[in-house]
Amino acid sequence: MIIKPIPPKQLSIIAFKAIICCILSFINVEVLFAQSPWIALGKKPSTLGLENGFLTYNAGAFNLKLVKSSQTVAGLQPKMVKDFDFVPGDSLKVRSSDGLYHLGDLNLKLRNTGDEAWKSYSTAAKRSPVKNIPAGKNILAAADLAATLPADIPLQVKRIWEMQNGKLLLRFELKNKTGKSIEIGALGIPMIFDNILEGRTLEQTHAKNVFYDPYIGKDAGYLQVTRLSGHAPSLIVAPVGHTPFEAYNPLNDDKTPRGIAFEGFYEWMVYSKAYAENEWKNAEQWNTPTSTVLKPGETRSYALQFILSGTAKNIESKLIENKRPVAMSVPGYVLPKDVKAKLFLNYPKKVKFIQVQPENALNVTALELTKNGWKSYLVKANSWGRARLSVVYEDGLEQTINYKVIEPESEVIASYGHFLTTKQWFNQPDPIFKRNPSVITYDEEKKEQVTQDNRAWIAGLSDEGGAGSWLGAMMKQLVQPKKEEVDKLKQFVDTVMFGRIQLKDGPQKYGVKKSLFYYAPDSLPKNTYASNINFKTWSAWPKKEADNLGRSYNYPHVAAAHWVMYRLARNYKGLVEEQSWKQHLIDAAETGMAMVNIAPYYAQFGQMEGTIFYLILTDLKNEGLTDEAARLESEMKKRANHWRSLQYPFGSEMPWDSTGQEEVYVWSSYFGYQDKANVTLDAILAYMPVVPHWAYNGNARRYWDFLYGGKLSRIERMIHHYGSALNAIPLLMDYRKHPDDFYLLRTGYGGLLGSISNITQEGFAPAAFHAYPSTLKNDGITGDYGSGFFGYAINTSSYILNHSEFGWLAFGGNLNKTGNTVTVKLTTAAKSSVYIAPAGLWITLDAGTIDEVVYNTSTGQIRLKLNKANEYTPNAVLRLSQPAKVNGVGNYSVKGNRIKGRGAYQFSLSKSNTTEIIIQK
């Protein structure tokens, strides 16, 4: 296949064609042509008063533009770059009718004390020109908002735009104008920034659009607004005074059309008790919902400041510069029970006390201050589930940090594998669709397998939402092989996957179908389909569409399964027929070739799990299969050359996506296209935040896949969807090249552990966790989770480093230092790899596991203690690579051993004790 570079000006056409093709097979055609909501929106009466003009101000680092009639923001442009606006100024006119939010609006829920019912008030619901208040010192603009609020509101509401210490502030003054005490049960400040991607090319979105992520951390909370390109500047919205970030509420009453090109807007909730009593009553909130009472005549002020920052990496240093609290946790905020975590806090005031909720969920022990005064703590987890630290400082500021406690990684993965091969093991008669035996989608709420769904792929074992479960089951064996599970999966591969999902012969051999389940009521026996499911929908594919081989995204799942079978046959004894390894590897490579030949259109884009083709290529070379390797490498280079020709090579079947970046980075890096690798990393860091909250830390942005892979179907920010682990692949790969970039490690490891954070104690793994405060729980079905587990399985590793501020640290292990000796006991499930940052050395095992690593900081010598042999693992296969060239560090090798076949060291493991291996320069 030859891919011709696409000129940037044609990308919008390509994206449009991609959507057309996708819609025909995946999305309702009506959805694509739903330009009508935007047209309808633009036809609504404009009530914002744009015809009366605008007010412009020099606001420190910004040029501020306000709508004169409403004094809401029409432009918030940083002076340091041209032609960029943090707010959606381009859509201001179409979004100028009643009920559409703008920066500067306010939402309230109020009641008289003692009353039961809350009443809602919003400055956006019915627009009328606000009353200008004469500006005072440092005030840019001020208004009484009574005219744009219902007449019966018991509060006087003033909004002030002002400058304080050179920074722009948005302040609201609320005064109780009645003779009764008024309870404020909800106070929401809409955060309206330009995340509307509708109608823009990839170049335009990366230049003009932003994504924003919350740290829902009470008084220490903030919102970070980053450009899609990942370039400076970014924006921090932080509280002034007591304006806590208590909850993050989606503004679903805003009529801006939400969908694949627009996630929706949110509001910063200062108080949320009114919602918690009603709309959110079935969900456990991130913070304890609160309210406040205004006495007659009392005035209260709430303010947010807008701080211009650099890239996402600069946000924490900018917060420290502005004397805002910063927290860093190692290895992150997903905390296995057997890991001794470190927490570092930076804030000028002393800690008054720390409270844990639920009580005793975590043990927190104070350690010595770091050399530059960071407060340091040891954090140890006790009980599985969500846990919250509340840190109260001497000045009364409260900072909350949300952790997710999980079982030790080895137990999490063991439970996952068991669940997949028992509860999800489908082996009942299936004469029509022939899906047995397999690992099929599971509904945790109903406690049953999903054998029918009006989304054909969900019950049909292909596409991400159907292949996810069997893919996860296969990848689990790479991490933690288990004979009885492997035996079942071997049946699946030999009968269902290779022969039914994937064609085993014929002119289109190795082609991959979209689904084994399909809807053909006229040609199949009566009662084939459940009567309680509505199959009169676009997603209930007929057989012709289910048999379609043209969706390239289905091919990596199958290639990964073949590759795992190769690994099991090649590196273990008695798990899979050992002489079959070569055919499994060739089948994996041929699947990659089929992808570019049979499904060429989408193959021009980066594939989720596309890293598999790099792994297959590496093993082909290691095995001396030079012809097969040359063919595969040639096709991958054509794709990489195409991406190199694009400014932002992240197209997909969607107009914007966060999954192609993984493969684009891997091949760009492999072929030496470092400029494109860097563009890719910048983009990932823009949508993968680092914040002190397990749900958002390392969570790659995705907001539409609940429609296609979930049970509760809606547009919604997804918590640790498969993008978290897939995007962690390039981040950690790049960290191994640049071990001084601590931010890369923190981001990547957040995504890595985030990907297993939602697995239940029993082993059920959902498509994702729901972010809406009305829900805040796992989705009900397994869906497309397996793609994320692929990312975890191939990327799990321990990391050892010496940080300039925090000292010796371990991610994926417990570290002790005595003199010149650093000892790390590995805590990952695989225990098959470790990266030693001071040496730039990555140690990986194809077979065998590491119990302990001992690093001599003086000589650089490394001692590995490998766990003893078992029935299936008599030998260890070990590889060394040095992706980083560290000054003064030479090449490492294994003492007293030579590299043998496949470019690896091979050892016989002791049957009774650990086997010690010395690695030295």
Strand content: 25-35%
What structural class do helix, strand and pairing data support? alpha+beta
Main beta sheet strand tally, sense and closure: 8 strands, antiparallel
Shape: globular
Low-confidence stretches: 1-34
Distance between the termini: 45 Å
Share of helix, binned: 25-40%
Q: Compute the gyration radius: what is it?
A: 28 Å
The count of DSSP E runs of length 2 or more, i.e. the number of strands, is 43
Order of strands side by side in the largest beta sheet? 6-7-8-9-17-13-12-11
Mean pLDDT: 95
Number of helices: 22
Question: Could you explain how this protein is built, in words?
Answer:
The chain is of the alpha+beta class and 921 residues long. Helices cover 26% and strands 26% of the residues. The strands form ten sheets. An eight-stranded antiparallel β-sheet has the order 6-7-8-9-17-13-12-11. Strands 4, 5, 10, 14, 15 and 16 form a six-stranded antiparallel β-sheet that branches. A hairpin with a 6-residue loop joins strand 4 (107-112) and strand 5. Helix 9 packs parallel to helix 22. The longest helix has 19 residues, at 626-644.
